[in-house]
């Protein structure tokens, strides 16, 4: 029988889990998952922002290859808001498309975020089932300016955030996580009953601003509303793993937990999480922006209590899943993910670099314990003066810069073992610096020489493409009138 | 039979342990100790500096009561360097003095730090045996200016740092931790053989600058020399616990691991540790300066894998040990420690505040999850401009101040659950602020009303009292000539 996969992709920081030192230690089920499986301490997402990371996970390719980036400005983070015109190109091969050919049933629960126009629908890209939203459910709410985000079941919307899926913005109460949990349990039961292998991608948005939790979790965390949401996610993960065990299929289901970007410190303290000892957060290419909590779980296969320092990436989930399914990755394109099975099952360490991109720019590269910054930037003085701060309470001279600083010819080098917080650049004159930078610069040259950037998908915005009239709206009487098309360059301030 | 005690008092930050989220996760034995015992997440030392914390641990009393503070300046940290005249007053009752009456054999291995003049000798204050040094082994070394610190065995010195107990300052190599480990193992064996209850206080200095490790540990850590020292300590703790188990006395030995102050970030990255997500480090009354790693271990009594949010203090080790020995704490003086046995054995939570003192000033108070700062200060602009930085890479406006800022009438209030990093003071106008501050101010009033400060011991310095001619020096030909006595006010810049 084929091995099934579960991927939990949350929006949490490295430091949000008890097992990673969150001082409230309120994630007993994730801590238990780690105790039963393997903890990755050096695991990365592919972008400091959500949409590009998700596209990277599902394609096994860097956003600069799969098109999830912008060229509207230099080194700008871009994602898929309601007015984005682009999305996942048909030319990209997604993990569920490949698994489908091997007989897998693929389900996404939660936020898709790879484009919301019809051609980008997840069921057109390999998924068989969907319950969730195409975008983040940002404000303003119930305004004329933009429709509330729809929630889909498979091909059609079944309602909208706030209108049909209530979130009390004052209390943070919403029962969506319970809905998404039940959906996961039911799907797993169905697959077990029909003995069909599956890929379940559980990518819910409770910890993304505006943060929410169910009534039974509200007020239960020391950490406030964000902690309530984390506790509910933790509880849900525990219930899903227990369900796999009770159905007797846990030894045949490979499960991975990780996150799509570092905690959004701009939303702290009420809605922002923790990146532990790391520098800055979401939106930046410092460790706080891209190093993620990660746990692999597969009872009977992965030795309990394992810890790995393998440099890993969300893109590896693509390659690892294919390997488990006995499939070959596509050979007609560059795949950035690697197969982690030798790491997970045999304790190997595979030498590979981590590339930290911000939009169209390679900002930094990690090889071994060294990280070289070719560009540094947090955000502009202009944004910063408005109170937008990606590094609250942190300031490292020459590192957390508010102008884009180029270091191409003399990269800033950090040793992440001695200095995980990226506070003490190595002396340019040291032998250690020269040896490490020479090595990393070779990797950069090799990487850039073979790089074929994809067509950028996140350049054009148009109010007309918003979720005015998603399929199914007519049955619900929820179709809205779109304005005239007026495509513009999207504005990406950071 | 009476329960024996082991106290490991190290110089490490909250974030230095794998179980507290250090990203290299290199402390398997301490993590295992936590898995077998109880982890305290909200445990504090009694001062952001070493000597006063140690005096507090052994007396169960705040430094401002037991005399380990200075009045030479406002809110100044003071300790016991070589030229200090004061030390632990005879009027203080130390834990080993009390235990001795109940038949315990008491041993200190490592740094005493409660004064080095003859009247302060640990064997005059209840300890039966000693291997270690009276002070830190600071530089300058082999100079005329000051003698190298002696190492004592019991009443007499057996050599000096650098001269007889080598530390290679270039490589950091020294075998002292191995010496101290062997001494602990031998002492435990001896006590087990004679069936005598014991108190072992293992307070070694490998992670205090200048940091050292044995050859077998040098270069083994991702974290550099500091990490090598941590690994050796971790390994030693593991060996001592295993020894207790192999001798069959682990169920009759209560063991506690903690630290005397937060990691010294001024020594980072080479010799400084990690305070995890907390603000600043040693020398400050922010969480990074005083929240400590803490683990209780007592197989067969403490349920494995326990976690406690009890607000704990090193002073509680005094009261807890007495309780275990069936002794009453002295009733003729104020004891600040509480008996943690109901917490450890029955999972209770005892309501009690934590007082954060810097020298003679009550800087902050924690009650529940709220912490009120009555004074804020990191260090002076003058010191800071010399590169002395207790909060490297961190800067929170109005909080990590470089002038002593008084907030007596409107304390800065933080909620440590939502904001463990002390970055977001609560609004003065909020109901939450008013409720919490009213409660804490009541505690402060009560505390101050009953406070009888001790005679300050750390005011006077004199080159003549340095370790020129410790007892035993003549046998070794290591007596040095002391200069004329010239007592002065000690200078405490921060």
Automatic annotation (TrEMBL), chains A, B:
GO cellular component terms, A-Z: lysosome
Q: Which InterPro entries match?
A: Alkaline_phosphatase_core_sf (IPR017850), GALNS (IPR035626), Sulfatase (IPR050738), Sulfatase_CS (IPR024607), Sulfatase_N (IPR000917)
The UniProt record lists the Sulfatase N-terminal domain at 12-326
- Write out the catalytic residues in the record: 50 (nucleophile), 113
Name what cofactor the protein needs: Ca(2+)
Q: EC number(s) for this protein? A: 3.1.6.4
Q: Which CDD domains match?
A: GALNS
Binding, Ca(2+): 50, 260-261
Catalytic function, reaction form: Hydrolysis of the 6-sulfate groups of the N-acetyl-D-galactosamine 6-sulfate units of chondroitin sulfate and of the D-galactose 6-sulfate units of keratan sulfate
Where are the 3-oxoalanine (Cys) modifications?
50
Q: What is its main location?
A: other
Q: Which UniProt keywords apply?
A: Calcium, Disulfide bond, Glycoprotein, Hydrolase, Lysosome, Metal-binding, Signal
Q: Which residues are glycosylated?
A: 175
Q: Which GO terms describe its molecular function?
A: arylsulfatase activity; metal ion binding; N-acetylgalactosamine-6-sulfatase activity
Report the co-factor binding details. Answer: Binds 1 Ca(2+) ion per subunit.
Gene3D superfamilies linked to this entry: 3.30.1120.10, Alkaline Phosphatase, subunit A (3.40.720.10)
Where is the protein situated, by its record's location annotation?
A: Lysosome
Q: Where is the signal peptide?
A: none
Show the PANTHER family listed in the entry.
Answer: ARYLSULFATASE FAMILY MEMBER, N-ACETYLGALACTOSAMINE-6-SULFATASE
Please give the subunit comment from the record.
Homodimer.
Q: Which family does it belong to?
A: Belongs to the sulfatase family.
Name of the molecule in the record: N-acetylgalactosamine-6-sulfatase
Q: Which organism is it from?
A: Certhia brachydactyla
User: Which gene produces this protein?
Assistant: Galns
């Amino acid at each position: 029988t084929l091995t099934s996969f579960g991927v939990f992709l949350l929006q949490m920081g490295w430091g949000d889990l008890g097992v990673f030192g969150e001082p409230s230690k309120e994630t007993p089920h994730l801590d238990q998952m780690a105790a039963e499986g393997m903890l990755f301490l050096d695991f990365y997402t592919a972008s400091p922002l959500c949409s590009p990371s998700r596209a990277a996970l599902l394609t096994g390719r860097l956003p600069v290859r799969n098109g999830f980036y912008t060229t509207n400005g230099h080194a700008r983070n871009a994602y898929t808001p309601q007015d984005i015109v682009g999305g996942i190109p048909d030319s990209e091969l997604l993990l569920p498309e490949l698994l489908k050919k091997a007989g897998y049933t693929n389900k996404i629960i939660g936020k898709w975020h790879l484009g919301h126009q019809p051609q980008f629908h997840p069921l057109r890209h390999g998924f068989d089932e969907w319950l969730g939203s195409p975008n983040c459910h940002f404000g303003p709410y119930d305004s004329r300016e933009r429709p509330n985000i729809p929630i889909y079941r498979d091909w059609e919307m079944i309602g909208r955030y706030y209108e049909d899926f209530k979130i009390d913005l004052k209390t943070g109460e919403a029962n969506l996580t319970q809905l998404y949990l039940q959906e996961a349990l039911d799907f797993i039961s169905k697959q077990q009953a029909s003995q069909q292998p599956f890929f379940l991608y559980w990518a819910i948005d409770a910890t993304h601003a505006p943060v929410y939790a169910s009534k039974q979790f509200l007020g239960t965390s020391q950490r406030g509303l964000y902690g309530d949401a984390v506790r509910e996610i933790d509880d849900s993960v525990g219930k899903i793993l227990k369900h796999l065990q009770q159905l007797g299929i846990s030894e045949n289901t490979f499960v991975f937990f990780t996150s799509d970007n570092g905690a959004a410190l701009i939303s702290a303290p009420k809605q922002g999480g923790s990146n532990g000892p790391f520098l800055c957060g979401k939106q930046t290419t410092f460790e706080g922006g891209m190093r993620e909590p990660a746990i692999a779980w597969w009872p009977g296969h992965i030795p309990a209590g394992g810890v790995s320092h393998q440099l890993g990436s969300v893109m590896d989930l693509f390659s690892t899943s294919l390997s488990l399914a006995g499939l070959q990755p596509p050979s007609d394109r560059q795949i950035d993910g690697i197969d982690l099975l030798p790491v997970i099952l045999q304790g190997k360490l595979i030498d590979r670099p981590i590339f930290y991109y911000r939009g169209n720019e390679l900002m930094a590269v990690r090889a071994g314990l060294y990280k070289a910054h070719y560009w540094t930037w947090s955000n502009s003085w202009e944004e910063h003066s408005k109170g937008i701060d990606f590094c609250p309470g942190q300031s490292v001279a020459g590192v957390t810069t508010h102008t884009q600083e180029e270091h191409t010819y003399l990269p800033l080098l950090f040793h992440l073992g001695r200095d995980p917080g990226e506070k003490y650049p190595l002396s340019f004159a040291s032998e250690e610096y020269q040896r490490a930078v020479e090595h990393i610069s070779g990797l950069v040259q090799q990487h850039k020489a073979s790089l074929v950037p994809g067509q950028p998908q996140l350049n054009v915005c148009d109010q007309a493409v918003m979720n005015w009239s998603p399929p199914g709206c007519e049955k619900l009487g929820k179709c809205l009138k779109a304005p005239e098309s007026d495509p513009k360059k999207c504005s990406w301030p950071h």
